[in-house]
Amino acid sequence: MTERLEGSAVLRCSGCGAVLQTEDPAKAGYIPKLKEEGAQICRRCFRIKNYNEVSSAAVDQDEFLRMLAQIGERKALVIHIVDLFDFQGSVITGLQRFVGNNPVILAVNKIDLLPKVTNWNKLRNWVQQQAKELGIKTEEIVLCSAKKNLGFDRLLQEVADRRGDRDVYVVGATNVGKSTLINRLITDYSDLDEELTTSRYPGTTLDMVNIPLDDGHFIVDTPGIVYPSRYTELVTSGDLVKIMPEKPLKPTVYQLDEGQTLFIGGLARFDFIEGAHQSFTFYTSGSLRLHRTKLGRADELYENHLGELLSPPSREDAEDLPEWTRHEFRVPKGGAQDLFISGLGWIKANGQTGAKVAVHAPKGVKVIMRSALV
Ligand SMILES: Nc1nc2c(ncn2[C@@H]2O[C@H](COP(=O)(O)OP(=O)(O)OP(=O)(O)O)[C@@H](O)[C@H]2O)c(=O)[nH]1
Ligand SMILES: [Mg+2]
Fold first, then answer.
1. Whose CA is nearest to atom 14 of ligand 1?
2. Ligand number, closest to the Cα atom of 225
3. 323 falls in which pLDDT band (50, 70, 90)?
4. Is 265 near ligand 1, meaning CB less than 6 Å away?
5. Measuring CA to CA, which residue among 283, 320, 324 is closest to residue 302?
6. Most buried among 76, 215, 228, 361, using CB within 10 Å?
7. CATH numbers and ranges of domains, the chain
C-alpha cells in the first residue's frame, strides 16, 4: 500500500502500517524482498498471522498523540472503540481534544464476553451514563462484537449515514479490537487482498494503515494507545491469555461474612471488611482460580503461597509486578456497584445493605467503584 498522506511513495506493510524495509531484520517493517506494488506484509505480520507468534511492540506515545492530533485537522468520521470488559480502562477520555469537531461514534466492542442473560437495553443505558460521567462526546453509541459479528448492521448504517465525504478513522486503546473490527467492516466496502494483522497481544498495529474504499475514501487503522493502568499491559504474554476472557463470562457468586478475603489467583485480592452477610459476584476470566480465606490470614497466605496456590503469576513473574496498593471503598446501601480492576474484571456488590471493602492490586492499576454493569 502506498503512502497517500505525505505524498511520497513509501511502501508500507498492509498488516500493521510499518514502513517496509529490507535492511534490518530486527526493526519494524522488515521484509526480505520488496515487491514494487500490491499489498505485502512484513515478516513480523507474516509470523503473527501464520504462527500466532507473540510480537508486541510499543509505539512511541508522543508519536501516537501527534498522529491522533492530525485527525483534528482533517475531515474525518471517528470510530472510538472501547473494550466492554475493560470499559473504564480502555476509554480515551481526552479524545475530543484531538479530533476537534469531527463526529465520533462510540463502538463498545466484545459484547460477546458478557453472560448470555444480559439485558441489552439496560447495558446501552449504562454505557450512555458512563460516557456522560467521563465527558465523552459522541454522536452515537453502538454495541458490537467484531469477533462474533454482532451489531454490525447498526454500525455500518451509522457509518454510511455520517460518512459523507470523510475518511473513517478507527481509534482506541491497544487490544480493544480495532483491526478485527475493520477487517469485518471492509468486507462490505472494499475488496481487500490482505487483511490487517490482529493478535491476542497488545501493540500489534504499528502505524496508520490507510485502506482504500471503493469511492476513493479511506478507512484508517491506527496503533492502540498504551495505558499503563491496565493489567493487560503489565502481565507476561502467558498470563495475558489467562486474564483475558475468550468465552462469555460465567460469574461466580460468593456468600461472604465480614472478615473474609478472596484472592483472584495471585493477581489481586478482595477483602470484605465490614457489613452484614451478603453475596459478591466475581466477573473474571474462567482461567483464573479464586481462593477464599480469612482476612486475618490473607497476608500470610500471600507471602507463603504466591505462585503456587495463588497463581498466576508465577513467583518469578510476580517479582516484575509493582507492589500492591490497597483501595478501600464504602459500598453505599442502594443500587448495586462494581469494584472494577482494569483488565482483570470486576466484583459486583449488590448494595442491599452496604459494605466496607478493599481491593489490593499492583500500584498503577486502575481500581474504581462504578455502578454495576450487569
Ligand atoms: N471476545 C472478543 N474478542 C475480540 C473481539 N474483537 C477483537 N477481539 C480480540 O481482541 C484481540 C485484539 O484484537 P486486535 O484487532 O488485534 O486489536 P487492536 O485494537 O487492533 O490492537 P492493537 O493493534 O494492538 O492496538 C484479539 O485476540 C481479537 O481476537 C470481540 O468482539 N470479542
Ligand atoms: Mg491493531
1. 177
2. 1
3. very high
4. no
5. 324
6. 361
7. 56-227 (3.40.50.300), 241-371 (no CATH)
